[in-house]
């Protein structure tokens, strides 16, 4: 598991019944969840609805929640499950696609506007090339790289979220990095470790 989650004190106050802790928890993690959700769906309203539903559930069931959790991991995992269910439900109502459930997954990778503002032309070209090569990877590898390097989750946490074994998770990352190393120069590969 990763280092001790800085939100653990906040979490303990929340499940003990503090209403101010609930507000602080919401404020602390809403942006993280929103960015995470937008990696999976282009529907901003759907993502916001799922965040609100998640916090309503947390408030309703806080008496039965575990005390010792990695808060960020717990919220990301719960939120991903809720977003997937909402996506499946909305797909069932979409008569254009009968198999839309299979399309749930991480969106194509792109660097943010902030990255574009601070990079010079050569670095921007390297980022564009890195983004292109990451987007050539299978969806599950892209998702694992995102969870590992953007969300800073460890192998056990990623495996739990994606419902795969830890060795499989390690293999996915190893193969993804090996494939990227074969197509990119070292400087571009190093940028993935600063992917925020």
Layout of helices and strands:
Elements lengths: L7 H8 L3 H20 L5 H18 L9 H22 L20 H6 L2 H16 L2 H12 L4 H8 L3 H18 L2 H6 L5
Helix pairs in contact: 1-2, 2-3, 2-4, 3-4, 7-9, 8-9
Structure description:
The chain has 196 residues and is mainly α. The protein is built from ten helices and no strands. It is elongated and about 50 Å long.
Q: Which properties best describe this structure?
A:
mainly alpha; 68% helix; elongated; RNA_pol_sigma_r2; Sigma-70 family RNA polymerase sigma factor; transcription; sigma factor; transcription regulation
Question: What characteristic shape results from the CA principal axes?
Answer: elongated
Continuous helix count: 10
Structural class: mainly alpha
Contiguous low-pLDDT stretches (5 residues minimum) are 97-102
Largest sheet: none
Helix and strand pattern: HHHHHHHHHH
Tally of DSSP β-strands? 0
* Cα gyration radius (Å): 18 Å
At a glance:
The chain has helices at 8-15, 19-38, 44-61, 71-92, 113-118, 121-136, 139-150, 155-162, 166-183, 186-191.
